[in-house]
Design brief:
By secondary structure, the protein is α/β, with parallel strands linked by helices. The chain folds into two domains: 4-187, no CATH class; 197-437, NAD(P)-binding Rossmann-like Domain (Rossmann fold), CATH 3.40.50.720. Helices cover 35% and strands 11% of the residues. It has helices at 4-9, 48-52, 79-82, 102-114, 124-135, 143-154, 180-187, 197-203, 215-226, 259-270, 288-292, 305-318, 363-374, 381-387, 401-419, 433-437, and strands spanning 95-97, 119-122, 164-168, 173-177, 207-211, 231-235, 275-279, 297-300, 322-325, 331-335, 427-430. The protein has a seven-stranded mixed beta sheet, sandwiched between helices. The longest helix is centred in the C-terminal third of the chain and has 19 residues, at 401-419. The protein is globular and about 70 Å long. The protein starts with a helix and ends with a helix. Mean pLDDT is 85; it is low at 1-14, 22-55 and 59-76.
Length: 441
């Protein structure tokens, strides 16, 4: 049988340098530009390729449109860095290889020969089946017809040369996935028609910022799963601690990992084509403007009064909507600074208080300000009873996994509506299960 390590590495031997050699065929020149669009067009009857490869996001897969490169992206990091000693446990970006290209094929071969790939996951045939089914869900095919349809999608390439190979350095896994647009179409196919393909394309073109990655981790991951946002900025100065595992989905092997790094890794494992930036030292007066500027929506989930206020000051000035879940009674704040740039921060709960006013607050003053923000008269009895014990018998604000996951769902649902231009008003809203279901705390 061999050792566990040998068994883990054994699948790598089937991916040879010959298998990943760049594909060439007459009339198609290799290109080093992974962002270049295909020029294929329909010439009458619509083949599988016409329906899928050139018409990703229209509503019924029927109207040929400008093609999208089947590579879509290049490697995030140069292979020299991938193979260097600097590539340590803090790495958070995957590396993408399109082996239809000379340089990427050579780089992937070097990676495989380095021994750093612990396991290879190649389910591209299953993904091709799902892709074809998504384009023509009602069609019944024989085995021969399935093979012919897949061959059309491959356009003469081998299955190994289709799409991208994604290496996740933190786990040592090498995963074969469809090209970006095909991958996203299949991955979000079960959203239809709660989210139309046209709306999904809009959502994947939006950029979301998330400040605070305990509760914010749930919001970020739920957004990624639903395809709400294709670019993200993450900010948190903290590392994962054991006490975070009561509400943050992670494993004990990840203790000590920076929360920004942890969240980015989890997001990339859902969609390797995301565009993610991280602020691993958190945000300061010098860095917050660069974080907020250019966002389509801001999710604020931090515990620091200065940052809560400063983030909103910048968002209001730039006309960016802000969402916040507070993990108590299902409270969701919506502040549409994009529609009302003069709107008072936190619905006027803090008056004219500015971020500069709260610098250096002691613990009692900080707690008092936080209670003003959430409205102490409306918090749950359980949280109300815990306030006086913070710093005495309680280390911090009590938060539950159920509330965290509910918050991620509320933020994602609301973010989707805001980003699609739906009529979402500013305000404070409660999804309080105690009241909705009649339970007693």
């Amino acid at each position: 049988m061999g050792s566990p390590a040998e068994q883990m590495s054994r699948p790598c031997t089937s991916l040879t340098r010959q298998a990943i050699a760049p594909h060439r065929r007459e009339g198609i020149a290799p290109t080093g530009d992974h962002h270049r669009s295909s020029t294929r067009r329909s010439t009458g009857g619509q083949s599988t390729v016409d329906l899928i490869a050139t018409s990703f996001w229209d509503g019924d897969f029927a109207l040929p449109a400008a093609g999208v490169s089947l590579c879509a992206v290049t490697s995030v990091l140069p292979v020299e860095m991938v193979l260097s000693e600097r590539f340590d446990a803090e790495t958070w970006q995957p590396v993408l290889f399109c082996i239809a290209e000379n340089a990427d094929a050579d780089a992937l071969a070097a990676l495989l020969e380095s021994g750093r790939v612990r396991a290879v996951h190649d389910r591209i045939d299953d993904q091709l089946t799902e892709l074809i089914s998504a384009g023509q869900p009602g069609r019944v095919r024989t085995d021969a017809q399935w093979a012919a349809a897949k061959a059309e999608v491959l356009e003469g390439k081998t299955p190994a040369q289709h799409g991208n190979w994604v290496w996740y350095p933190w786990s040592g896994r090498l995963v074969h996935v469809l090209p970006r647009e095909q991958f996203r179409l299949v991955r979000t196919d079960r959203n239809r028609d709660k989210i139309t393909r046209a709306d999904q394309a809009v959502l994947l073109d939006r950029q979301i910022g998330v400040i605070g990655l305990s509760v914010g981790n749930s919001a970020a991951l739920t957004c990624v799963m639903e395809g709400v946002g294709g670019a993200f900025r993450l900010a948190d100065f903290d590392r994962l601690g054991l006490s975070n595992l009561n509400r943050l989905r992670a494993g004990v092997h990840e203790l000590g990992v920076e929360k920004t790094v942890l969240c980015a890794r989890q997001m990339y494992e859902i969609d390797p084509y995301l565009d993610i930036e991280i602020w691993r030292e958190g945000l300061t007066a010098d860095t917050i403007d660069g974080f907020v500027d250019g966002l389509d929506l801001l999710v604020e989930e931090c515990d620091t009064p200065w940052l809560k206020i400063a983030a909103r000051e910048h968002a209001r000035r730039l006309g960016i909507p802000v969402l916040m879940d507070t993990n108590d009674r299902g409270l969701l704040d919506v502040e549409r600074f994009d529609l009302d740039p003069d709107r008072p921060l936190l619905h006027g709960r803090i008056g004219d208080t500015t971020a500069d006013d709260v610098v250096g607050l002691d613990r009692p003053a900080t707690i008092a300000l936080m209670l003003r923000m959430v409205d102490e008269t409306r918090i749950s009895p359980a949280l109300s009873g815990a306030i006086d014990q913070i710093g005495r018998t309680l280390s911090s604000w009590p938060q539950l996994a159920s509330g965290t996951m509910l918050g991620g769902a509320m933020v994602t649902d609301t973010a989707r509506r805001v980003l699609l231009g739906r009529a979402v008003p500013s305000g404070r809203f409660y999804v309080d299960l105690d009241r909705l279901i009649g339970w007693q705390s």
